[in-house]
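Worked example 3. Consider a protein that binds guanosine-5',3'-tetraphosphate.
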Amino acid sequence: MAENYASEINRRRTFAIISHPDAGKTTLTEKFLLYGGAINLAGSVKGKATARHAVSDWMEIEKERGISVTSSVLQFEYDGFCINILDTPGHQDFSEDTYRTLMAADSAVMVIDASKGVEAQTRKLFKVCVMRKIPIFTFINKMDRDANDTFELLDEIEKELGIATCPVNWPIGSGKGFKGVYDREKNSVFLYSDTEKGTKEGETTAVSLDDSEKLISIIGEEAYGKLTDEIELLDGASAEFNLEEVRSGDLTPVFFGSALTNFGVEDFLQHFLQMTTTPLARKADVGMIDPVENEFSAFVFKIQANMNKAHRDRVAFMRICSGKFDASMEVRHVQGDKVMRLSQPQQIMADERKILNEAYAGDIIGVFDPGIFSIGDTLCMPKQKIQYEGIPTFAPEHFARVRQVDTMKRKQFIKGVTQIAQEGAIQIFQEFNTGLEEVIVGVVGVLQFDVLKYRLNNEYNVEIRLEPLPYEHIRWIENKDIDMKKLTGTSDMKKIQDLKGNPLLLFVNSWSVGMTLERNEGLILSEFGRN
Ligand code: G4P
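Given these inputs, the predicted complex is written out as structure tokens:
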């Protein structure tokens, strides 16, 4: 049976694009889709307006469309591959969901702005990729603008992110002086020509490095001399390409290009597709589940509440981990111990949703959720009962004390915050050694505070007041037998607990985290919580 879908699964590539806002993630995605023929003209992946909207618009957009526009999965075909791109929303939309999306990807493309280097959001998302040991491919973008020194850029990636780099190509100049890239494998220079924006017919002329006369006549003696010097230096200094190390997330292949002018994008896509993996096996309680050898299984990585008051339904996004999904088949929801048919399985393509009848390991589907699924839940064939490893809880970075305005509404308030926390939109904590007298809410992105306020008001009829707290770092305590009373931290440290009673620490800055570790020998703090 497996043979029937082995070829479908093996041609799938499922990856996330990570970057700091404005590095060019949307532009690069548009160009990928353009090559895949999924769109005719770049520029229609998602409205710029929706990516840059203000808080109030955001609510409107959510209401209008029902489902979040911030969380799309794009599927397209290219050269026999079936590609799933997972978007990792940034700006104000940055939330825990952004992290969770990475749990569903098999690899990540890291887009870096050549004039900015490694930026905050990239750093955060990168950490999650490292935790999962998934391959990371680097695209250094905007070479048509003045860029930082190439060696310095690579050095920064290595030092800041702790991953070895291996440039697959090497840029010749930048900005007005950008001449193209040298492809190390092909030993040729691909010349840059500013293509008409938004077209894929960018002409790329290749000249062998050995044809020095021709090259010098095109790029000039100075650029040629600098290039040959740099190549020599590079051959001696950079890590050698090793696919095993790429696959284990220890080495990142680096590409230079310009998404906007479409230079180096298709070349990157082609290399990337050859180097990245087919859908990876996943760890379940019974061991690793091979995507091809097993029948259908999936796990829920994200739940999207419907912001429309008239429809209390939600959409559960799941990553298919093995086998084939057929809309007519019955599946087991393991955590709920129920056999069911999934309602309205759909795929989200740009702004449209389409109902689908079948999907394979590697694909992401969204299904109608009447409120039964939780993040991390497993679905499998009725005769099975496997459970995939849970999705970790990611460290919130913004905290606020939350109170209901009308004290008579205590019950609704607790019900509301607890339910919204169960969906994974926020995390709630309490003071150490007290009950839910005071609720401390932690979020990854500040927009979630507005979502909380809006939803409590609309769905639970509770008005709240938020008092921001100065903490920015939270740590889970890994030591099982810790005596919290004896733990000595810095004066600004706060001891709190989650709803299960697990102790946690809040810090104002990373210096305090370090100090606390120093003062308590053997203390193990983690940035990820276990569910
Ligand atoms: P994001 O999704 O990572 O946030 O970035 P996005 O693609 O929206 O790109 C951010 C800005 O950078 C856009 O300009 C985009 O046109 C520009 N950009 C992307 N890639 C390149 C590149 O290779 N070279 C140059 N020079 N610019 C690039 P904008 O002015 O903010 O938007 P727009 O008005 O052009 O749409």
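Take a moment to read the result before moving on. The pocket of guanosine-5',3'-tetraphosphate is lined by residues 19, 21-27, 48, 141-142, 144-145, 258-260 (CB under 6 Å). The two ends are 35 Å apart (CA to CA).
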